[in-house]
Amino acid sequence: MKPGTFRRLMNLWPPFLFNSIAVTDISDDWSEVRVRLRLRPWNKNFVRTQFGGNLFAMADPFFMLMGMHRLGDDYYVWDKAGEIEFIAPGKEDVYAHFVMSDQAVEALRAEAASGAKVLRWFEVDITTAQGDLVAKVRKQLYVRQKPRVRPT
Q1: In 10 A of CB 83, how many CB atoms?
Q2: Domains of the chain
């Protein structure tokens, strides 16, 4: 599926649509994804700032999806773990810019070449439009090369 088509479908996905999370850009090679979380009356927490669950949700699927597309069908790619550190209250719209470099992809391929599982952490900052840090999210990917089927 082309990144633009996938972006439009993600923006219609109910957990994103109803919580004002939008994928604003996916690069053609899936190396970068940009996401915005708008602050709306229905997604504020008790103290009228960004709800922490939405901050984590806006970052949840993207490293796994990027890994799946960048590594291709010869690899299993799963989320293994995730964590978020809240730095400052989100009192406005916030943004995340995910990057999975060519070097990271090649390192995953090299480590998984033996068939062993690979666990790798990726990080993204959630910031305001001015660049003020609101939260840091870490996601751990599980990557394993699929067994090759030998012809009989």
Answers
A1: 12
A2: 3-145 (3.10.129.10)
